[in-house]
Amino acid sequence: MMHRRQSLAWLAGIGLGAAGPAQAGAVWRLATGYRADSLHGQNLRQFADELTQASGGTLRLELHPEGRLLPLAQMLPGLVEGKAEMGEAIMTGLVKDLPLAGADSVPFIVRSYDDARRLWRHQRPLIEAQLASRGLRVLLAVPWPPQGLFSQRPIAGAADLAGLSMRTYNSTTVRIAELLKAKAVDVPMIQVGRALSEGRIHAMITSAVTGVENQVWTGLKFYYPINAWFPKNLLMMRSDVHDRLEPAQRHALAQAAIHAEQRGWRLSEQAARESVDTLRSNGMRVEPVTSELAQALRRLGEKLSLEWVRSVGPEANQMFIQYFTTT
Questions:
Q1: Model pTM greater than 0.85?
Q2: Taking phi first (over 0 means left), then psi (-120 to 50 degrees means alpha), and beta for anything else, what does residue 147 get?
């Protein structure tokens, strides 16, 4: 979360070679791969409205959801090429260009929203530096609700997952299934309902929000809030566009971004609570994580974090050292 000192430093970052102030009534395109009614989409809509109001109408955002302007896979290059002034993407989808964004998908290291805030505090300046070299700047980041464990049967320890068909969708979930001795089954989320009805998956790791959206209680009966990881969406903008703003416009933008980041984290926490309640009201058993399972997952997280640090390099190591040694 951006603090006052950070916002002042950000406001001070004025490009001396800027090409002149932005024209009054500028309209910026904000591209996102997510639905307008998602928690992120709603937050961006409020961000746009607040920016227009705070700038006296001189800055306006035109929201382009669902990948209509830029699909998620093209967000970073699309922004660099000037196809939009702002863009939002999930950070785990940017690891090819921003390896340190991959910290978001290292499992069982971040266990709470407070942990996630602390990680972002150490991750942010490194991401900002990597994006600056591409002519982009960070506006804010907001997490999705944490990833939980869904299962057809009770899970008291890691051994209970051995042999189960577990839904996987990326390299991290495949590696988790492998280490837990579960059978990895690649199933896109839009096909989860069918896979459950056909008995092809018996467990999966995803957020309670996604579980509600896909009504997974039709095939899965238990939910465990293991908080495997807190993936964040990152909102970026072109540096040259920012540098053409007048001081008052920069201030309006900085304040709107601070408010949107703070609001977005609150919305995420609210969505997490409400979705778990919805699972419970639809007959799912929301069970506490046993100490045995928690210990097994922590050991797994230590192993996977070491693998990730080795693959990324010294900056990743330093970031995790700072994360684990500060409060």
A1: yes
A2: beta
